[in-house]
Design brief:
With 191 residues, the protein is mainly α. The chain has 2 domains: 122 residues, no CATH class; 48 residues, no CATH class. It is 60% helix and 5% strand. It contains 7 helices and 2 strands. A two-stranded antiparallel ribbon has the order 1-2. Helix 1 packs across helix 4 and helix 4 crosses helix 5. It is elongated and about 75 Å long.
Amino acid sequence: MVAWSQLLLPALLSAVLVFIVSSLIHMVIQLHKSDHLKFVNEDEVRAAIGKHSPAPGQYVVPFAKDPKECSSPELVRKFEEGPNGLMFIRRNGAMKLGPFLGQWFVYSLAVSLVAAYVARTVLPAGADYLKVFQVVGVSAWLAYAWGEPCNAIWRGQPWKSAFLYMFDGLLYAAVTAGAFGWLWPAAIVGA
């Protein structure tokens, strides 16, 4: 079995590569520029929401305490009238990218380590580049991309946006798989 110490360099390198690719996607190419819409009455919406200073969290409108309430005439009317939505509220304060980027890097490293775990359980030292690429690539793609359909199904994320994020995930998986394929430990001769 491949030693964990031999997988730390490809895991770290792949996290760095994912960070670079995601920076290019979001800041240079701006593939997701049209993913978010602006309320035409943004100031009114902000004032209405801010009036009661909601705590950071995930909010849904209309809100139902339990599934039974969803069939009440009042809630049925609210759903039919709309709007129906899901909103995330963050803490107030200036937008600081540093913490987001730090968390993203840690997440990318965690995905690489999970992909390394999967690969080391099924691949021997000296495995062929393509085999390493396949195992690590599929593992990483599952982690980076396959939560997006759930967001489209349950949270109302537009499918176009979900598919774009899945494409991002495919790119992240490819650079992760490439790093592991390139740096996969060689077989020990005579072992």
